[in-house]
TrEMBL record:
It holds the Pfam family UNC80_C. Residues 18-109 form the Protein UNC80 C-terminal domain. GO terms for cellular component: axon; cation channel complex. This is Protein UNC80 C-terminal domain-containing protein. Transmembrane segments: none annotated. One of its GO terms (molecular function) is monoatomic cation channel activity. One of its GO terms (biological process) is monoatomic cation homeostasis.
Length: 112
């Protein structure tokens, strides 16, 4: 499966007709190779202007899965802490918003 298809799978998980199959595919990808599945999102968080869409996809993926695999939670946590540190070290105009959105996803992981 191509790395870029993870955003499509997250969007499919929001559709009631195919949400069960999409959630199953996401869960299996996270169990098999979390880093590969999430690489597309994490590589683009610091380089694209569509950060909100990527954070939204992460948030929805965490909310829609019945149980997030522990390895996936660990990978997401580490990458989001690195993302926050990136914005702390290289401040720009949108840094507070980016940090706040990453912290909201971290909150979901901690309570999952």
């Amino acid at each position: 499966m191509a790395c870029s298809s993870n955003l499509t799978l997250v969007k499919f998980s929001l559709m009631t007709e195919i949400s069960t199959i999409a959630e199953y595919c996401i869960f299996q990808c996270l169990v098999e190779d979390t880093n590969l599945f999430l690489r597309f999102i994490f590589e683009r968080l610091t380089r694209t202007t569509h950060k909100g869409e990527l954070i939204f996809a992460l948030r929805k993926m965490i909310q829609r899965l019945p149980e997030l695999p522990k390895q996936s939670a660990h990978v997401i946590f580490n990458n989001l802490v690195g993302y926050i540190m990136f914005h702390v070290r290289t401040p720009n105009f949108n840094a507070p918003e980016a940090i706040a959105s990453a912290l909201s996803v971290l909150h979901l992981i901690m309570w999952d």
